[in-house]
Amino acid sequence: MIPLEHYLYLSIILFCIGAMGVLLRRNMIILFMCIELMLNSANLLLVALSKFHSDNSAQIFVFFVMLVSAAEVSVGLAILVMLYRNKPSTQIDLWKKLKE
After folding, report:
1. Domain of residue 79, residue span
2. How far apart are CA 44 and CA 16, in angstroms?
Protein backbone atom coordinates (compact mmCIF):
# COMPACT_ATOMS: atom_id res chain seq x y z
CA MET A 1 0.00 0.00 0.00
CA ILE A 2 1.31 3.43 -0.94
CA PRO A 3 1.54 5.83 2.02
CA LEU A 4 -0.41 9.07 2.06
CA GLU A 5 2.78 11.15 2.05
CA HIS A 6 3.64 9.98 -1.47
CA TYR A 7 0.30 11.25 -2.76
CA LEU A 8 0.85 14.49 -0.90
CA TYR A 9 4.32 15.00 -2.40
CA LEU A 10 3.11 14.15 -5.91
CA SER A 11 0.22 16.58 -5.58
CA ILE A 12 2.52 19.35 -4.36
CA ILE A 13 4.98 18.74 -7.21
CA LEU A 14 2.22 18.77 -9.83
CA PHE A 15 0.67 21.92 -8.37
CA CYS A 16 4.05 23.70 -8.34
CA ILE A 17 4.74 22.71 -11.95
CA GLY A 18 1.32 24.08 -12.94
CA ALA A 19 1.81 27.30 -10.98
CA MET A 20 5.24 27.87 -12.49
CA GLY A 21 3.78 27.27 -15.95
CA VAL A 22 1.06 29.87 -15.33
CA LEU A 23 3.57 32.39 -14.05
CA LEU A 24 6.31 31.88 -16.64
CA ARG A 25 4.66 30.92 -19.92
CA ARG A 26 2.91 33.32 -22.31
CA ASN A 27 1.02 30.90 -24.55
CA MET A 28 -2.72 30.60 -23.89
CA ILE A 29 -2.90 26.89 -24.69
CA ILE A 30 -0.07 26.12 -22.27
CA LEU A 31 -1.78 28.31 -19.65
CA PHE A 32 -4.95 26.24 -19.96
CA MET A 33 -2.92 23.05 -19.62
CA CYS A 34 -1.16 24.36 -16.51
CA ILE A 35 -4.45 25.38 -14.90
CA GLU A 36 -5.80 21.90 -15.59
CA LEU A 37 -2.65 20.41 -14.05
CA MET A 38 -3.22 22.44 -10.90
CA LEU A 39 -6.86 21.36 -10.70
CA ASN A 40 -5.92 17.72 -11.23
CA SER A 41 -3.29 17.89 -8.49
CA ALA A 42 -5.95 19.14 -6.08
CA ASN A 43 -8.25 16.34 -7.24
CA LEU A 44 -5.52 13.77 -6.66
CA LEU A 45 -5.02 15.01 -3.13
CA LEU A 46 -8.76 14.98 -2.41
CA VAL A 47 -9.14 11.41 -3.67
CA ALA A 48 -6.09 10.25 -1.70
CA LEU A 49 -7.35 11.86 1.49
CA SER A 50 -10.83 10.41 1.03
CA LYS A 51 -9.34 6.94 0.51
CA PHE A 52 -7.26 7.07 3.66
CA HIS A 53 -10.08 8.51 5.77
CA SER A 54 -12.81 6.23 4.36
CA ASP A 55 -14.98 9.17 3.33
CA ASN A 56 -16.56 9.23 -0.13
CA SER A 57 -17.83 12.82 -0.04
CA ALA A 58 -14.52 14.15 -1.38
CA GLN A 59 -14.81 11.91 -4.42
CA ILE A 60 -18.18 13.48 -5.23
CA PHE A 61 -16.56 16.91 -4.88
CA VAL A 62 -13.80 15.81 -7.29
CA PHE A 63 -16.46 14.83 -9.82
CA PHE A 64 -17.96 18.33 -9.69
CA VAL A 65 -14.51 19.94 -9.96
CA MET A 66 -13.91 17.90 -13.10
CA LEU A 67 -17.24 19.08 -14.53
CA VAL A 68 -16.38 22.72 -13.84
CA SER A 69 -12.91 22.34 -15.33
CA ALA A 70 -14.37 20.80 -18.50
CA ALA A 71 -16.75 23.74 -18.81
CA GLU A 72 -13.86 26.15 -18.19
CA VAL A 73 -11.80 24.56 -20.94
CA SER A 74 -14.65 24.64 -23.45
CA VAL A 75 -15.41 28.30 -22.80
CA GLY A 76 -11.73 29.22 -22.72
CA LEU A 77 -11.00 27.47 -25.99
CA ALA A 78 -14.01 29.15 -27.61
CA ILE A 79 -12.66 32.53 -26.53
CA LEU A 80 -9.22 31.51 -27.78
CA VAL A 81 -10.60 30.62 -31.21
CA MET A 82 -12.43 33.96 -31.46
CA LEU A 83 -9.31 35.88 -30.48
CA TYR A 84 -7.18 33.81 -32.86
CA ARG A 85 -9.44 34.86 -35.74
CA ASN A 86 -8.80 38.50 -34.89
CA LYS A 87 -5.04 38.18 -34.41
CA PRO A 88 -3.49 34.85 -35.54
CA SER A 89 -1.31 34.19 -32.51
CA THR A 90 -1.71 32.48 -29.14
CA GLN A 91 0.79 34.73 -27.33
CA ILE A 92 -0.70 36.80 -24.52
CA ASP A 93 1.59 39.77 -25.12
CA LEU A 94 0.11 40.38 -28.57
CA TRP A 95 -3.44 40.26 -27.24
CA LYS A 96 -2.80 43.03 -24.73
CA LYS A 97 -2.88 45.45 -27.66
CA LEU A 98 -6.54 44.60 -28.32
CA LYS A 99 -7.55 46.78 -25.35
CA GLU A 100 -6.15 49.88 -27.02
Report:
1. 4-99
2. 14
